[in-house]
Amino acid sequence: MCDQTFVAATFGPCDSCSKPSPLMNIYIKNEATNYCSLCVEMMACQGLQKGETLESLKRESETLKKKLEEERNKLNDVECNVSVILCWPILIVWDAFTLNKEHGVPLPCTWVLACAYAPSGCAIACGGLDNKCSVIPLSLDKNENLAAKKKSVAMHTNYVSGCSFTNSDMQLLTSSGDGTCALWDVESGQLLQSFHGHTADVLSLDLAPSETGNTFVSGGCDMKANVWDMRSGQNIQSFESHESDINCVKYYPSGDAFASASDDATCRFYDLRADREVAVYQKDSIIFGASTCDFSLSGRLLFAGYNDYAINVWDVLKGTRATILFGHENRVSRVRVSPDGTALCSASWDSTLRVWA
Amino acid sequence: MARDMSDKEILKMELDQLKKEVSTPRTPVNANCTDTIAFVEGLAPNDPLIKGVPDDKNPYKGDKGGCIIT
């Protein structure tokens, strides 16, 4: 640490070390004292606990900055085919064909970062900066007050960045800014399993597509993507080849691979059986981070939304870019392909959802 | 939580995890990639985004039907 330069009004013996040097007038516990700059530095360091260094504190501030950036999101998530949108602070369920709003649920929390449809289509889970993930049962009765039936299921110590129902309506998997993922029982709100291993915020998770699958993949700010076993809570595999935060992870339709989109402007394809990265989708002309990715039905195409307002479509097998989709006026925050594979929906900070078919 | 742990504890956790991972069974990329390619080629003809949709079934054909949801 080097001394900062400062204008010294006084020169004389320091109040703590008694060495004559230029003095800084500071206030300790409301008393004016004069310390030399070395003593001021030493005092500042005493505030640190043993083992902490300025480096680690700096890292902490970086993660806080990231959180702030997420808080500025206007529109954050989309599910297909009957879409669910998170708007501030209303949860809207759209029918993508008729363009009608089916339900609108006002939420008390200002920023919602994640949402998911239950497999039966009867409920929605959503969570965000309120550190909770809540489940709202849907009903066809238009007059019913859906907000009143909202039930808090997950409780984290930091924001909820992603949520997904497992194969049943009864279990919910969440990922959080506190660096953990957790599996919850919806009825009782009990924590069934927690997954520790990330050393920074977890930004995204995705469940393996198979009916009997018990694994999921999560990606976080520590640049790692981890594959977990849901029953044991163990981290089975981990991949660390990205150079920046992983914003989104998505399983391949076959269940043997997954892709990740990251702030380092690349998307990478990892094979689980070979336990390594097999493809990197990048171009010199793409310098903005990718915030989201999704596969087409057959897995031939990878749609990735970037912060330069475009969606790049990559040919998964060839590793080349197939096409670019322009249209949004602000960054693309989420893309999802519909379950039948006929359309792609993209959500953006320009407050619109676009369906591409 | 990771942010409550000191650097030493984090490194220890990572080390434990890596030790477990060293013994994971792995298959060569060659075999897996051939499988992946076969999988994709098998499904590709049914992928509406690749093969396209016949005009009579396409509700967005022409100028009608396209719009933006806000």
UniProtKB/TrEMBL annotation, chain A:
PROSITE patterns: WD_REPEATS_1, WD_REPEATS_2, WD_REPEATS_REGION. One of its GO terms (biological process) is signal transduction. Transmembrane segments: none annotated. The keyword Metal-binding does not apply. CDD domains: WD40 (cd00200). It comes from the Eukaryota. The keyword Transcription regulation does not apply. WD repeats lie at residues 153-194, 195-238, 239-280, 325-357. Residues 51-81 form a coiled coil. Pfam families: WD40_Gbeta. Keywords: Coiled coil, Repeat, Transducer, WD repeat. Belongs to the WD repeat G protein beta family. PANTHER family: GUANINE NUCLEOTIDE-BINDING PROTEIN BETA G PROTEIN BETA. This is Guanine nucleotide binding protein (G protein), beta 5b. It comes from Haplochromis burtoni (Burton's mouthbrooder). The lineage of its organism: Eukaryota, Metazoa, Chordata, Craniata, Vertebrata.
UniProtKB/TrEMBL annotation, chain B:
Keywords: Cell membrane, Lipoprotein, Membrane, Transducer. Gene3D superfamilies: Transducin (heterotrimeric G protein), gamma chain (4.10.260.10). PROSITE patterns: G_PROTEIN_GAMMA. InterPro entries: G-protein_gamma, G-protein_gamma-like_dom, GGL_sf. Guanine nucleotide-binding proteins (G proteins) are involved as a modulator or transducer in various transmembrane signaling systems. The beta and gamma chains are required for the GTPase activity, for replacement of GDP by GTP, and for G protein-effector interaction. Residues 50-70 are annotated as: Disordered. Its main location: membrane. Pfam families: G-gamma. It is a lipid-anchor. It comes from the Eukaryota. GO terms for cellular component: heterotrimeric G-protein complex. G proteins are composed of 3 units; alpha, beta and gamma. One of its GO terms (biological process) is G protein-coupled receptor signaling pathway. This is Guanine nucleotide-binding protein subunit gamma. GO terms for molecular function: G-protein beta-subunit binding. PANTHER family: GUANINE NUCLEOTIDE-BINDING PROTEIN GAMMA SUBUNIT. Belongs to the G protein gamma family. Residues 1-70 form the G protein gamma domain. It is found in: Cell membrane. Transmembrane segments: none annotated. The keyword Transferase does not apply. Residues 53-64 have a biased composition (Basic and acidic residues).
